[in-house]
Amino acid sequence: MAKSPIVARTVLSLRQALRPYRRAGGTIALVPTMGALHAGHLRLVAEARKRADRVVVSIFVNPTQFAPHEDFGSYPRRFAADRAALTAAKVDVIWAPTAAVMYPQGFATRIAPEGAALAGLEDRFRPHFFGGVCTVVAKLFLQVQPDIAIFGQKDYQQLRVVTQMAKDLDLPLKVTGIPTVRERDGLALSSRNAYLSPDERAAAPVLSRVLKASAARIKRGEAIAAVMTDGVGEIVRAGFAVDYLEARHALTLAPVKTRKDGPIRLLVAAKIGKTRLIDNMAV
Q1: Do the beta carbons of residue 55 and residue 92 sit within 8 Å?
Q2: Same domain, yes or no, for 58 and 85?
Q3: Does residue 183 form part of some domain?
Q4: Does 99 share its domain with 201?
Q5: Under a CB-based contact definition with an 8 Å cutoff, are residues 281 and 262 in contact?
């Protein structure tokens, strides 16, 4: 039977849990999550175990990255199930602070990222989001002090923003992105998939199908603008309201017009019913 991870709920208890690992000279990997773990999260944990001697998984539903109209209150919270999954995955420490621990009385410092955080993608629809993400992720990095942090590529703009933040602030760790884990029909795994009705779930794979087909057309030399227009139409016909379907430079997230503008990443965000889904794919 797998040994249960240490569950730390204060910064002091976290540091006490990590102290023996540091004294032994082992490397530490951090997998930041908001809980409600699925196979995609567990793939990140598996990668972390390959790349470091010890693995810390944080579980914290961060209130500062949710706007008042978003789903903070209803975001799934399943700590007992998450703990069982992480025990089976042989995680060493679960870092599970409360909001009062992460943002104590008098907390007054926030990070305001620019660059990829102002690319006109998620930030256009969630202008509060990346400030909240960068503030909490910077705190996680400083609290855990990992050698490596593992993120999924599904939240691609977030990955680029966090990578740049760590570089800009000279944080001594490596940020690594792991390819998106998908269902057999192509739908990117997400905790929010649980919100989908059966009909919505049946329609949802159109996002990955459009990304895959659009990437193939661009590789064949078709005009990016026309490909994106066709893709939006197909997603709308499937019942989605599209926030964006864009071709961007894979590193800077600047708009691109042709394949000559650099490595390309296609990114999409769309809402079906009450559920907003995002996805991306390399060209």
Answers
A1: yes
A2: yes
A3: no
A4: no
A5: no
Of 38, 41, 128, 249, which one is the catalytic site residue? 41
Give the orientation angle of helix 206-219 with respect to helix 224-237, to 10 degrees.
Answer: 160
For tokens 């800009």, the residue is 168
For residues 256 and 267, give the distance between their C-alpha atoms in angstroms, rounded to a whole number: 12
Report yes or no: 35 and 126 within 8 Å, Cβ to Cβ. no
Which pLDDT value is given to residue 3?
A: 87
174 and 199 assigned to the same domain? no
Element of type H or E holding 281: strand 275-282
Q: Is the dihedral of CA 183, 188, 194, 195 positive or negative?
A: negative
Asked which of 150, 178, 206 is the last residue of a domain, the reply is: 178
Q: Does 128 qualify as catalytic in the annotation?
A: no
Q: Give the HSE-up count for residue 282: Cα atoms under 13 Å, Cβ half-sphere.
A: 8
Residue with token string 């660059």: 115
Please report, for residues 2, 126, 190, the alpha-carbon distance to residue 123 in angstroms, rounded to integers and kept in the order given: 41, 5, 19
Residue percentage of the chain with pLDDT more than 90: 90
Q: How many CA atoms lie within 13 A of 26 on its CB side?
A: 16
Amino acid 122: pLDDT: 97
Parent domain of 64: 6-178
Pairwise pLDDT comparison (77 vs 100), residue with the higher score: 100
For residue 196, list its beta bridge partners: none
Q: How far apart are CA 44 and CA 39, in angstroms?
A: 9
For residue 46, the model assigns a pLDDT of 98
**Does the pLDDT at position 268 exceed 80?**
yes
Counting the structural domains of the chain, the total is 2
Q: Same structural domain for residues 31 and 114?
A: yes
